[in-house]
Amino acid sequence: MKVVYKVTYPNGKIYIGKDLTDSINYFGSAESRLIEKDFPRDQRRDFSIRKEILWENEEATDSEVNQKEIATILKVPQYCLKTIEDGRHASVRQDILDQYVDFLGFREWFNQWIEQNRDVYDRLSERMHHKKRNRRANHGKRDDYKT
User: Dihedral sign, CA of 52, 58, 61, 67?
Assistant: First the structure.
């Protein structure tokens, strides 16, 4: 079973992760240094961590699990990331593209690409903005597609 899970620490901070093997004792690879800063020595003596399975699937590919994990972290529908990955430019939402680029650590590269391909980027941006205007104009007509 492949899963996406949420670990909640006593201070309310969370870690979202994936486990491709569904190991009961796997709590992710959160950055230990960051966690240690939040818990003084006396608080480390007795505390509980909660692990919650948010999504599970036996048949998902590793790539689908990766997308589900990122979609959960970014709090966006998974199909929006798939649209970006599939290159369906007319359906891409600019706000989600920006979040995804930042999450992947591609901001510097993406900005360089924009500079070198300004005409292409402007055409794609216009399509995204046109779609957004249409979505606003149709608001209320397709409530079942709200994101």
Answer: negative
- φ, ψ at 55 (rounded to 5°): -160, 140
SS3 at position 54: strand
Global pTM value = 0.71
C-beta of residue 8 within 8 angstroms of C-beta of residue 14? yes
Taking residue 92's Cβ as centre, other Cβ atoms within 10 Å add up to: 21
Burial status of residue 87 (CB atoms within 10 A of its CB: 0-12, 13-18, 19 or more): exposed
Point out the residues of the chain with pLDDT beneath 50: 137-147
SS3 state at 42: helix
Q: What would the pLDDT profile of 60-88 be if each residue is shown by its tens digit?
A: 999 999 999 999 999 998 888 888 888 88
Cite the beta strand spans of 37-115 per DSSP E. 50-57
H/E element, 101: helix 94-104
Q: Where are the domains of the chain?
A: 1-74, 76-147
